[in-house]
Amino acid sequence: MGFFIEVLFGGFLAGVLYALVALGFVLIFKASGVFNFAQGAMVLFAALSLVRLMEWMPIPIALLVSVGIMIVFALVVERLVLRPLVNQEGIILFMATIGVSYFVDGFGQTIWGSEIYTLDLGLPKEPVIILESVFEGGVLVNKFDLVAAVIAGILVTVLAVFFQKTRIGRALRAVADDHQAAQSVGIPLRDIWVIVWSTSGIVALVAGIVWGSALGVQFSISLVALKALPVLILGGFTSVPGAIIGGLIIGAGEKLAEVFIGPSFGGGIENWFAYMLALLFLLVRPQGLFGERIIERV
Amino acid sequence: MRTKLLRAAALGAIGAAAMLAAGAGEALAQNEQFLPRLVYRTGPYAPNGVPFANGYADYLNMLNERDGGINGVRLVQEECETGYATDRGVECYDRLKGKGPTGAGVVDPLSTGITFALTEKAPGDKIPLITMGYGRSESQDGSVFGWNFPLLGTYWAAADIIMNYVAQKEGGYGKLKGKKVSLVYHDSPYGKEPIPLLEELAKRHGFAFSALPVTHPGVEQKATWLQIRQNRPDYVLLWGWGVMNSTAIKEAAAVNYPRNKMIGVWWSGAEPDVTPGGDGSKGYMAAALHAIGDQFGVHRDIYKLVYDKNRGAGKREEVGQVLYNRGLVNGFLASEAIRKAQSRFGNKPMTGEQVRWGLENLDITAARIKESGFEGLVYPLKISCQDHMGSARARIQQWDGSKWSFVSDWIEADRKLIDPMVVAAAKKYAEEKKITPRDCSKES
Questions:
Q1: ipTM field
Q2: Choices 1.10.287, 1.20.140, 1.10.3470, 3.10.450: CATH for A2-284
Q3: DSSP bridge pairs for B214
Q4: pLDDT (tens digit, 9 = 90+) per residue, A20-60?
Q5: Which of A24, A183, B96, B294 ranks highest by number of CB atoms within 10 Å?
Q6: Phi, psi of B349, rounded to the nearest 5 degrees
Q7: Which residues of A touch B (CB under 8 A)?
C-alpha cells in the first residue's frame, strides 16, 4: 500500500510539472482561440535566455531581462505572424505557430547554444521519507516536486484572478469568443494579443525554470510540451484549473499504469497510456473536464 | 579590326586561363577523399553529438594541416544534420554517398537506429559503415555483415565487460547468485541490444535480471526509479543517451539509489551526463572505450595546427572530453583504414570497396598508435574478414564530482561467450535476408 501511495503521489507531482507547461497553451487558446504549437519552444527559449544571461548578470536582473525578451518575442509574433493573419481560420493560425515553433527552436539554439546548461536557483532537491511509521520504508517525496507544486498553485491563482477579475482578463475572454465582435466594441485586438502572448511567455519562463532546474536547460525541455497535450485534452483547452486537474490525473494515471500494468506489456507504456486516457475522456466529454461546451446554431 | 583582334585575343586568354584554372581545380578535386559526416548538432541529443562531431572534424583537419591529408590525398568532409533521427540519417546518407571523385569512402552513422537502416543499403552501395562501439552486435560477423565494422566493441561486449567488473567487485561470478541486476534502457534498438547477453549471463550465473525501458527522449523516469526503489537491485546498468543519462542519475539521487552501484555503457559516461546532476552524480560509474584528457600527442598537434589557427570545430576547453576523444578515435580509425587501403591500391582517393579492404586488413599496432600520437589513448586493434570488431576491451571510470578517474584496468570481453551468440544471430539474419555468407578463408 505504501508503494501505491508513493507512486500515486509521485504521479500527482509529475502531473503538476506537466500542468505548468499546459497553462501556457490554455492562456493563448483561451484568449485567442489559437492552439499555440510553439509553447514548448517558448519554454526552451525562455529558459535558455535566463540561464545564459545568468552567466553575465545577477539572477534578479537576468530574470527581468528574460521577461523583457519574452515580451519582445510576443511583440514580434504579433507584428510578423498574427497581424497579417487576423480573422483567418484557427487552423491557419495553428499552422503559423508550427512555423514559429521550429524557428524559435533553431534560433534559440543558434544564439544561446545547444549544450546542457545547469540552472541552479537553490531549489531543494533532497528526497524526504514520510509516513515511515505507517508503511514499511515510508513514502518517498521529492522536495523539488513540492516546490514545483507550490509554484504552479501560485501561478494558477494569479492567472484565475487575472482572467476573472480584471478588465484586461474580460477583454481577453471577449476576444477569444469572437475577434470581430470584440473589435467592434473597441477592444484593441493587437494589444490583447501582445498581452496574452507576453503572459504566456512569462508562464513559459516559469515552466522553463522548473523543468530546467530538474533536467538542466537543454533542447529536451521543449519536448515536454508533448506531455502537456493529454493534459489539455483531459482538462479542457480553456480552463486554467482544468490544466491543473488534468495534469494531476494524467500524471498519476501514467505512473500507476507504468508501474502496475507496464510490466505485463514489457514496460515503457506511460507515454501512450497518457494519450489513451485522454482519448477515453474525449469520447465521454469532448470539451474536456472543464472546457467550455461550444454549441453552434445552424 | 585591330581592336576586334585584341578583344578576341584577350577573351581567348581569359577563357584559356579559366579552363586551366578549372582543370587545376578538377585535378585538385580528383585528389580528394570525400567523407560524409552524419552528425547531430541540434535536437535532444546535441549535447552528446556536438563534442563527438568536433573531435572527428578536428582530427581530419589536423591531418590535412600536418600531412596534407593521407599520403597527399586531402580529406574533404561534409556534415549532414541527422538530429539522431533514422529517417533524416538515411536521407543524409543518400544525399552524400555519391559525392567526391570516388563517392563516400566510409560512413559513420553515429546512431544504432540509422545503422540498422543502412545495414541493408550499404552492401548495394559498397560503402563500409564504421560503428565504433555501437550498432548491431551480431555485425561483428564479417562473413554475413560484410560492410559493418563495429570496431573496438559491441553492446554485447560492453554488457559482458560491465558484468565482469561487477563480478570482480563481488568476488567472482559465483557470488552473483541470488543478486539482482536491473537494466534501465533507452527504448530503442540501441537500448535493447544488451538484453540477450544479460539474459544469458543471468541464466548462467543465477542472478535475477530485469529490464526497465525509458521512452524517448528520457525526460520522465519517475515511474522507473520508483520501481528501482521498490525492488532495490544490487546493481543498475544504464543504457541511455543524451538527456536520459543525466535524468537517470538525478532520479537515482531522488530515490536515494547509491550512484556507486550504477554503471553505464560507454555512451552513458561523458561529461554532459554527469554535470547536470551536480554532487548527486558523485560515485556514478561507466565503461570507457578509451582514455580521457588532452595530454596525448595527437592533442598537441590539434592545438598547434587547428586551434592556434582558430580553425577548431568547437571550444578549445572542450578538447579532451570523453566524447571529443571518442570522435577523435573514430576519425583515427577511419583514416587508418584509408591509409591501409592506399598501401594496396595506390596513393589516391579510395572507393568504399577499397576502404572495406583496408578495414578488413587493419592492424593498428602499438608502434603505429605511438607514431600517431594515440599512445595511452587507445589499444592495438586487428580486424579480419571474419572478425569486424577486433579486441573488445574497456575500463570502468568513476565520476568524483569534477572529473572521471579509472577504477579498473582494461577488462576484455569474454569472446567464448559472445562469439557463439554472434554466429547464431548472424546466421539467423542471413537466413531472413537470404544472404549467402562469404567464405573468409578464400579472401585475401
A1: 0.81
A2: 1.10.3470
A3: B186
A4: 889 888 888 877 778 899 999 999 999 999 999 999 999 99
A5: A24
A6: -60, 140
A7: 3, 6-7, 10-11, 14, 105-106, 109, 114-116, 118, 120, 125, 127, 140, 142, 144, 214-216, 218-221, 223-224, 227, 254-255, 258-259, 262, 266-268, 270-271
